[in-house]
Design goal:
two-stranded antiparallel sheet; 73% helix
Length: 162
Amino acid sequence: MKNSIKFGYLAIVLATTVNTSVANELMIFPAKGQSNETMEQDKFTCYGWAKGQTGFDPMKAPTTSTPPPSQAKKGSTAGSAGRGALGGAALGAILGDSSKSAKRGAAAGGLVGGIRQSSKNSSVDQKTKEWEQKEMNNYANNRSQYNRAYSACLEGKGYTVK
């Protein structure tokens, strides 16, 4: 379930990237007086050629090239703090006779348990952000390569591309 949430989030991010790139779509001008029909045929031909050269299809929904980080968050900081507090209380009770020792042990155990889980969660969050950034960069690079190939094809057919 966690992976599907990550894929969903990444799909939204990539879709935003796709919408931005559509807004920055290439401008094509028929420099040699080509008709609209000829221009549409040439655009389709160059689409196929650029897709074949780069392996990138701008008409397909964006996908990831690698799986997301597999380390899922195992628990909440509060839950880990609670488990640490119970362990600390038990240890405090064993080591000392007073309830004061048990309370100190519970406080220390809760603090350590909470910090440990928070650190794990931060690490997973960081790895997820790095993975998302890598995937977005990969998409942008692939799109850029496709645009270069597509532009080269159209320019070879007598169009001005900006």
